[in-house]
Write a structure and sequence with these properties.
single chain, DNA polymerase, domain 1, Rossmann fold, 5-stranded antiparallel sheet
Amino acid sequence: MATKPKSKPLPDVAKLTKAQAKVEWKRLALALEGHDRRYYQEDAPTVTDAEYDALRRRFNAIEARFPEFVTADSPSQKVGAAPSGRFKKVRHAVPMLSLDNAFAEQDVRDFVGRIERFLKLSDDKIAFSAEPKIDGLSMSLRYEGGELTTAATRGDGTEGEDVTANIRTLEDVPHRLKGRNVPEVCEVRGEVYMTKKAFLALNKKQVEAGEAPFANPRNSAAGSLRQKDPGITASRPLGFFAYAWGEMSAMPEDTQSGMIHWFERCGFRTNPLTKLCHAVEELLAFHRLIEEQRAELDYDIDGVVYKVDRLDWQERLGFVSRTPRWAIAHKFPAEQAMTVLRDIVIQVGRTGSLTPVGKLDPVGVGGVIVQNVTLHNEDYIKGIGGDGEPLREGRDIRIGDTVIIQRAGDVIPQVVDVVIDKRPNHAKEFHFPKKCPCPLHTDVVREETAAGEEGARARCTGEFACPFQKIEHLKLFASRRAFDIDGLGEKQIEFFFEQGWVKEPADIFTLAARNDKIKLGEHEGYGETSVRNLFNAIEERRRISLERFIYALGIRQVGETTALALARGYGSWAAFHDACLKVAKADEEAMAEMDALDQIGDTVIQSIAAYFGESHNRGIVERLTREVIILDAEKPKSNSAVAGKTVVFTGSLEKMTRDEAKATAERLGAKAAGSVSKKTDYVVAGPGAGSKLAEAQKHGVTVLTEDEWLKLIGE
């Protein structure tokens, strides 16, 4: 009987060189974006939460060691994915954010230790609310005057989908809140789920009806809730656990555990396993207990969530980017499976990057059917790591091999090993293409660094001449996070491109004017109504927010969150465009001002310089701006004395930690920058302030002591 060979563990992040870490960081970022889209937008994940969480774990470890890698576009700065577009959109009054993850007990100890240092308390004085983490669909329920008015999915954290009619069919969701002490405006948040028993019964009916079964209870819950016909939702056995809140006109309790009891009094179901713990060892003991009970529960969970119980401490702790400092999800381990690799195909991305994808015999791993697996690059297939060291003890991956896949670890999903004993005689070595698979067959180059450590990344040299890259740029432009044009999806973009009707973004907005020649209505799938709807949808998108427009340009390293940071930093398209042109000409002052924006570093600046330094790109932008109206960035809503101001903290702060100072500034509507420029409004200088203080004096920036800053913000 063949034995499973031992796979070589991934190199410790602490041992990676900066160049090696950068390669892996880029790979992981791309994988995370794809999985976020499939999970949150399409309800069709190809991996389990465990695999996804393990990917996040390694990605976050790299960013923790190399914080300079973090940009506003990093997956660690994002939540979920944009709404799917099948329902009306709802903008959350308070964003629905995600939690950071812990995978080992030491991660939990570190989490508690950070809170102790932040609050300057010992852990035995800090109570934590601990509860099972339900694997379902996040939901926000808005009540006004005690009546349910709106129900929305999380979406991308900022905008979700209006599923009010469907959510009203759930028995666990009261149409009117019970009891007293109900705020005028109250948003109750929690998880819609399906029990395991109900899931099995539903899948049995699906199969009997000749329909495809759902992959797992989470998918079935999401699919059941996102039905155009509320009657279908009503026929599905869905439950709801309440555990959080959004906008509240008044707070009925002052602790997390108190709010859970208040939810119960209002008529909601809460998880009966929720427990109050008073030390890190109690948290860990609770996690072990829940893991032991996991198989006996009639609903899926993938970990335990810990939250600081006192709400005033939660507010003081604040957030790091898109995750709260006061909460963490302690996840359960993942699973592996064995299957056969049937083929390897090459995908060309928007930036010309060539990625090999393995086609597998479908295999179930943790309740999800996996059919595709990323193989990263040429060296990975050969069994060579980024540092030149062997992967999988040097075993290469061949078409026809039996492979072990894991839905956790470096990339999701990934091949962790090859079962050599099962390698057939006809197993075929894969030779990485030297030419792009696009019709132009342009050359493929390997990007090298001085140390040769990024050489595994292959890229098509065709740039905008490569049809694959052009199409991917157009898909991004019309996507939900960019211009969000209904009826102009990936298939439509490909069809219009092949017909020669849309070669660049501006062409989308001239389609209607050219329809006498194009005659779109004469093509299959386009009747009079669909053509009219498409042209109306395009017309509705002629006005666009600055951050969406910047993101839609498809600049490398400038994703959704980076675009938002740039939009807030410059305020208007004219100011941002002017800065980009100057940066492209290596204007030192413009580069310094851009670098001073929080989370905008050299990588982003270099990408912007390269993009606007190319005349072809400038032409695309110029023609596009003639067709659209770009709205200025929204002003901060806070009415504090520092709202809209840019502040830099330097030196040793004595009454608050640096993180606490930044969190407070951002909560009050200020921008916490990393460096000083002439556009900086305040520099808060503690003992030992050095070069930043000197820069402030050079530019005439107002310098405050820590006490003066606290007085200014009223704390």
